[in-house]
Structure formats: C-alpha cells, structure tokens
Amino acid sequence: MTPRPLVIAANRLPVMRTTDGWETSPGGLVRALLPMVTETGGVWMGWTGVPDDLEGKFEVDGVAMHSISLSEREIEEYYEGFSNDTIWPLYHDAIRDSGYHASHWQTYSEVNQRFADALAAAAPPDAMIWIHDYHLQLVPAMLRSQRNDVRIGYFNHIPFPPPELFARLPWRTEIIEGLLGADLVGFQRDRGARNFAGLAEQLTGAQIEIDHPLGRDGSPGLVHHAQGITAVGAFPISIDVGEIETLSAGRTTRQQYNAIRNRLGEPEVILLGVDRLDYTKGIGNRLSAFGALLDEGRLDGSRHILVQVATPTREGVDHYREERHEIERLVGEINGRHARLGFPVIHYLYRSLPLEELVPLYRAGDVMLVTPFRDGMNLVAKEYVATRLDDDGVLVLSEFTGAADEMTEAVLVNPHDEEALKSAILTAVEMNRHERRNRMRSLRAKITSHDVAEWARRFLNILEQPENPKAQEISGTGLTP
Ligand code: ADQ
C-alpha cells in the first residue's frame, strides 16, 4: 500500500532565511518529519518568520514548502497577541495574566482560515494532514468543512489546561469545536487529553467513550460529537536520541567539555540551566534558590557555580521583556554579593547555542536544573540525560513538566516552593556516585528507548487506522450541525 502523502502545518516552516538561501531549522522534530514529508510527496506549510514574506510554494533541498505570508499586524495580533499573550499564559496555569482582545481573536481566526484554505487547496487526495500546536487550533474544523477525503491530526505541544482555567477564554467553545474537526487530537500527557475530552463534553455536549485506550499512558479514547468522532490520546514527545548520543561520544565534545570546566576555574560542581527565556521556565526561582544557598553558606561560590544559557524569545511581548529584566537583575545581584574578581558565581549567556556547543555543556554540567512552573514536556531534560553516556550527572526536574511523568528517577521538585528547590539543589550537589549512577542509568534506559521518530510514527499510525473515525462519515457542511 502506498503511504498517504504527509502534509504538515505549523506556525513556522522548518527552514530559516540566511544571506545565501535557506537553512533547515535545528531540532529533532524537524529532522524526524522532513524525510516523511519528502518520501510521501507531501508538503510543509507555515510562516517563514519574516513579515510580509513570500506566499505559496517553493522547495528547499528537495522538500516542498508552502509559505503563508503574515503582515506586521497579523504577527502582532495572531502570533504575539492571541497565541502568545492569550493562549500561552492561560494554558500554562495562568501564571501570567492573559490579554483578551476581540481584535486579536479576529485576526487569529482569519490567519487560521488562511492556513485551512491553503491546506485544502494544496493537500494531495487522501493526504494525512498533521497540524501542530496552539497557533492553529481552529484549522482542523475549517479544513474538515472543505475536504472529506483527508485525515486530520492535531498535536498540542504545550499543556492543555483544566476546565476551570480554560473556561475563562471568551472563545472557549469555538476553540473546542475547531479541534473537534480533527480525526485525532494528541497531547503530551494523559491529563491534557482528559481536560480536552471533559471540555468537549461540557461545552459541546460530546460523549466520551472512556474504555478505548490510546496513548502510552492510557487516555479517554473516543469523543463522539455532532460532527463525528475524534480520537484523543497522550503522545509524549521525545528527542533524536541517536544524534545526541553520537555528538556526545565525539572526541571534540570531550575536548570541549574539559575546556569548559577549565575555563570556569575547575569548580567542584557545575550547575546548569538551559532554557528559552520564558517566564514559564522558572529561571528566576532557580537563581534565587542558588543565591539563597550561597547566602546561607550551604553552597560555596569558589566550589559551586551556575551556568545559565537563555535563548532570546518573543521579545515583542511585554511579559517576556519583564522576565528578561528580572533575570538579569538577579544575576547581577547574586554575582555582586558572591563573585570574586575574575570568578562570577553565575555565568549567564543570553543567546541560542548550536547543538554542537550545547552537548559539551550538558556533559560539563554536574547538576542540570530544569525547574519550569509548567511545561508541556521539556526536551532539555531529555537531551541532558541522552548526553550522559558516562551514567553520571543529576537531573533536578520540576514536577510540573510532562517529562516528570516518565523521568521519576530525577530529583523531582515543586518550583513554587523555595525551600524545596534549595533542598533539591543540595540533594543533587551532595549525591554520592553510586546513587547518581543508579538514577542516571534508569533515566537513560527510559529516554533512549523512545525517540522522536518513533513518536511521529506512532501518532501517524493511529491517525491512519481505519477504526478511527472516518472522514467520510463526517458531513462536509462545517462544524455547526
Ligand atoms: P519549548 O518551550 O521551546 O518547547 P523545550 O521542550 O525545553 O521547550 O525545548 C527547547 C529546545 O530548545 C530544546 O531542544 C533545547 O535544546 C533548545 N534550547 C533551549 N535553550 C537553548 C539555547 N540557549 N540554545 C540553543 N538551544 C536551546 C515546546 C513546549 C515544550 C515541549 C516542546 C516539544 O513548551 O513543553 O517539550 O515544545 O513538544
């Protein structure tokens, strides 16, 4: 049987403009999906990241791309506004206030409609269309109303909130109806799947078929609704384990991590944080806990140092500018109190590093601090473990990450509790070699047995299964019956 053509729709295309053409974006997800798109004669649809850029088809290294052009206003209202100032904070436990602006919603709907129209026109017959993430939640139903032959999957990379938070959204029913246009809706965790199914029941009168397990952690299964049936499941994402292990085993990596330790003054313990500079990642709490341990003399700045690498992100959104200022203030304050000439206690880099530089840093890090207040999965935790071919290193991991479901041998912590954070850091710093090895071995066994390519295959296999709701059964008249 010839595989169905795979069409991916995501806010961003998997390529970035360079001075002399296009470069494929880094990341395991892109590397896993691109060959599937090419081999099946599919296409990847998304935005280039540049305002008023090209619209329509082009090709990069044999992969078909389809660009959706966004104007400055659309970027401000659909991307920075509704996606990142309304949905992002609300879906992350509402740890920052969301803005609710009808104009942003309007633009979000218009951009989603443009994606759906372009997909309906470009997708080959019988294609599998895989829509990614919260920027495009209305696309499944908008597309379903135009195409009955295709199978539609949607995956939510970020958490899906509990009903009491989701209910704040003035456009809550429209979002749920938008997602119900898909044949399969996937979440990082079982909890997200259950939240979604519960909301479908509450807001649209859908019925949930509970005992139809899908997803590794079990799931609510099938949601029967006015327009048909949507399968719902948990699909915890992973990383390209092979690539990271190969890089980690390389001679250059070994030379580099020795050089890093040397440049940092051969401290006894290097603590490490690597994050997008996002207020959900708990960077400030982590720095404060480290600072407090130095203040109390329970850590010593000449033996224990922290490296924090933070990638610039969403700098057009107020909450992100405020978070950056707060983190930089904390770094300055803690270094002011504890640095010696030439030896800061916190080394702070505000930039993105290529994987070739990140891997040696992971190898140099004795204690990895991953302390988000809420995170869909958190790939940094998985990357760190994948690099530790020496079975050494300790992962301190927030209970509020999707990764914590699987990575139970990490030192798990509630990042809202400063005393708990301090004690988790001390536990990690003082852990003996035997326990470090036992925990890391178990973590590595879990992480290395599930990689991102397998994750993608599993999602697509379930999407393709004939027992799943058939697109043909769903009337072509749009969502409202
Ligand atoms: P993110 O919120 O971006 O992803 P995460 O899963 O940690 O969070 O992925 C970050 C990626 O960026 C990692 O691959 C990491 O290596 C890279 N990165 C971070 N800091 C970097 C730096 N300074 N330089 C270079 N690279 C850096 C969203 C969700 C997550 C979910 C993923 C995948 O918020 O919960 O795990 O999607 O589904």
Structural key phrases:
single chain; 481 residues; alpha/beta; Rossmann fold; 10-stranded mixed sheet; 6-stranded parallel sheet; 18 strands; globular; disordered C terminus; binds adenosine-5'-diphosphate-glucose
Walkthrough of the structure:
It is a single chain. This protein has 481 residues and is of the alpha/beta class. It folds into 2 domains: 6-238 and 453-468, Rossmann fold; 241-449, Rossmann fold, CATH 3.40.50. The chain has helices at 28-39, 72-91, 102-122, 139-144, 163-166, 172-179, 190-204, 241-249, 251-263, 283-295, 318-338, 355-364, 379-387, 403-406, 418-430, 433-448, 452-464; strands at residues 6-12, 15-18, 21-24, 43-47, 56-60, 63-67, 128-132, 151-155, 184-187, 207-209, 221-225, 228-234, 269-276, 304-311, 346-350, 367-370, 394-398, 411-413. The chain has a 10-stranded mixed beta sheet, sandwiched between helices. A 6-stranded parallel beta sheet has the order 15-14-13-16-17-18, sandwiched between helices. α6 crosses α7 and α10 (283-295) packs across α15. The longest helix has 21 residues, at 102-122. The chain is globular and about 65 Å long. Mean pLDDT is 93; it is low at 469-481. Adenosine-5'-diphosphate-glucose is lined by residues 27, 157-158, 237, 274-276, 309, 311, 352-353, 358, 375-380, 383.
